[in-house]
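Re: [ENG-882] Designed sequences occasionally contain unexpected residues at chain ends

Forwarding the minimal case from QA. C-alpha cells:
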C-alpha cells in the first residue's frame, strides 16, 4: 500500500496519503454537509454545513495521522527504524525498515494505534461535553461528537484479528510467542485478513441484493483488504524462504553510476545498454549519490525534450530511494521493494555505495535454493526490467 500524495515529513517520518483518504474525506464532508447535519440540526446556512463538513473531514485525517504516528514512535522506541507512513481510510500503514525483534515489541507496536484512536475518541468526547457546557453552537458540538464516534469505530475495526489491520499484527505477535515462528505467524495473520475480506464482500453483496446500495461500500472495503492481505501473505512466504540470508549475499557489487548533469540524449546515446541495470545511481558534483534514474523513465521523455532535460530532472530524489546495509537480513529488505525504484535497492556502508539489489537477484537466490515462492516486486522470468505495480509512479512523471 503506497502513498500517491507525498505531503512531507512529520517528526522526521515521511508521510504519504493513499487515494482512499481523498475518498473518505469527500464522503465525510459531503455526507455531513448535505445530509446528516441538515437532517438532525436544521435551520443553518449551507455555508455553515459546508464548513462543518470540511472541518470534520480535516480533523478525521488528523486523527488518522495521530494513529499512525503512534505506531511510528513506539516502533522507534523498540529499535525498529521507520521508513514512512501511508494514511488510508482505516488508519494507515507504518512502513518499518526492520522487523520487530520480539513478540512483545511486535505487540506494543500493533496495539498503540488503536489505543491512540481510543484516546482521541475520549478527547473529542470531552471537547464536545465541555463545548455543550460552554454554550457553543450545535454544529460545533455535533462535529466533535461525530469525531469521537469515528475514532471509536476506527479503534474497534482495527482490532479485528486480520492483517493488514492492527488486530492482525496482534494476532501475529500472539502466534509468534506461542509457536516461536514469526514467519508462520505472519502467514496465518494474512490468511485471517483474506477471510475477513471474503466476509465483507459477501455481506456487501447480500446487502446490495436485499437492501440498498450501501453494500457497495463493504464490497469495496473487502476488496481493498483482500489486496493488502494477499501482499502480506506473499511477503510472509518470501520471508520464510529467505530467512538467514544477508543483503551482501545477493547484491550485485557493481552498478554503473551516471553524472547528474548528463542530458537524457547523451545518456541514451552512450549508456543505455540493453544488458545494464534498469536502475542507475545519479552522482552529484561531489561524487555522492543524489538519486537514481530508471531506464524506463528516461526512455519515456519526449524526443524534443531530451537534449535539454538532464538526468537530475527525471531522477528519483535521494529521500525517496530505498537503501540497505550489507549486513542487514534480506527479509528486512522485502517491505522496501514495493517503495523502491522498480524494485531496486541501493546498498551503502557508511555512505559508500557498495552495490544494488534487484528483484531478479532475490528471485535467483530463491531459485538456487530450490524454493518456489513469489517474491514481492520480482519478475517471474528474472528479467531486470520488471513492470511496476499499478499504483506506482509511471514513466514520464517527474519526482521532484
Amino acid at each position: 500500500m503506497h502513498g500517491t500524495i507525498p505531503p512531507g515529513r512529520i517528526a522526521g517520518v515521511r508521510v504519504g496519503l493513499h487515494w482512499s483518504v481523498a475518498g473518505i474525506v469527500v464522503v465525510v464532508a459531503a455526507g455531513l454537509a448535505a445530509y446528516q447535519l441538515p437532517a438532525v440540526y436544521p435551520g443553518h446556512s449551507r455555508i455553515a454545513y459546508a464548513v462543518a463538513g470540511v472541518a470534520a473531514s480535516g480533523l478525521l485525517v488528523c486523527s488518522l495521522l495521530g494513529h499512525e504516528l503512534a505506531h511510528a514512535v513506539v516502533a522507534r522506541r523498540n529499535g525498529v527504524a521507520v521508513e514512512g507512513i501511508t494514511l488510508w481510510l482505516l488508519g494507515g500503514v507504518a512502513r518499518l525498515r526492520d522487523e520487530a525483534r520480539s513478540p512483545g515489541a511486535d505487540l506494543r507496536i500493533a496495539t498503540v494505534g488503536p489505543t491512540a484512536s481510543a484516546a482521541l475518541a475520549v478527547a473529542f468526547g470531552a471537547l464536545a461535553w465541555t463545548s455543550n457546557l460552554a454554550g457553543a453552537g450545535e454544529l460545533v458540538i455535533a462535529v466533535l461528537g461525530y469525531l469521537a464516534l469515528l475514532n471509536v469505530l476506527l479503534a474497534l475495526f482495527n482490532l479485528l484479528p486480520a492483517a493488514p489491520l492492527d488486530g492482525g499484527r496482534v494476532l501475529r505477535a500472539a502466534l509468534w510467542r506461542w509457536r516461536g515462528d514469526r514467519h508462520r505467524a505472519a502467514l496465518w495473520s494474512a490468511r485471517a485478513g483474506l477471510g475477513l475480506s471474503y466476509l465483507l464482500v459477501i455481506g456487501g453483496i447480500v446487502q446490495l441484493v436485499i437492501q440498498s446500495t450501501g453494500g457497495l461500500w463493504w464490497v469495496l472495503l473487502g476488496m481493498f483488504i483482500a489486496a493488502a492481505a494477499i501482499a502480506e501473505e506473499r511477503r510472509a512466504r518470501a520471508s520464510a524462504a529467505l530467512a538467514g540470508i544477508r543483503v551482501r549475499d545477493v547484491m550485485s557489487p557493481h552498478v554503473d553510476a551516471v553524472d547528474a548533469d548528463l542530458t537524457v540524449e547523451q545518456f541514451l546515446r552512450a549508456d543505455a545498454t540493453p544488458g545494464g541495470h534498469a536502475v542507475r545511481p545519479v552522482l552529484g558534483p561531489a561524487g555522492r549519490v543524489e538519486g537514481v534514474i530508471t531506464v524506463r523513465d528516461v526512455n519515456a521523455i519526449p524526443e524534443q525534450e531530451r537534449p535539454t532535460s538532464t538526468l537530475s530532472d527525471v531522477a528519483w530524489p535521494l529521500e525517496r530511494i530505498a537503501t540497505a546495509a550489507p549486513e542487514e537480513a534480506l527479509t528486512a529488505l522485502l517491505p522496501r521493494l514495493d517503495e523502491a525504484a522498480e524494485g531496486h535497492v541501493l546498498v551503502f556502508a557508511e555512505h559508500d555505495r557498495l552495490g544494488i539489489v534487484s528483484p531478479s537477484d532475490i528471485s535467483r537466490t530463491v531459485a538456487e535454493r530450490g524454493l518456489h515462492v513469489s517474491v514481492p516486486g520480482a519478475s517471474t522470468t528474472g528479467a531486470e526490467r520488471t513492470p511496476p505495480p499499478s499504483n506506482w509512479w509511471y514513466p514520464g512523471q517527474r519526482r521532484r
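QA comment: On inspection the terminal residues look reasonable. DSSP finds 13 helices and eleven strands in the chain. Proposing we downgrade this to a documentation issue.
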